[in-house]
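User: structure tokens for this one?
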Amino acid sequence: MSFSVLARSSVLRQNAVIGSRAFHASKAARSDHGHYHHLPFQWPGEKKLSFGVKLGIYLITGFSIPFIASAYQLKKAGGAEA
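Assistant:
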């Protein structure tokens, strides 16, 4: 029997479909106690103000780095008279 006949076999196709449908996430792969968390970290709870300040500093620093680098490069090249 040739392999092309085996590849077209309905039994092999049925086994492939059943195997793909049988996948389920294990309990270890799920979140603890079935709770869904859309953030990749634990929410700080009562420390919302400090979390907001830290997040704001982090975002402002990351956004300002390209502007600081370009100002430095312009000043170093003599292009900016500041």
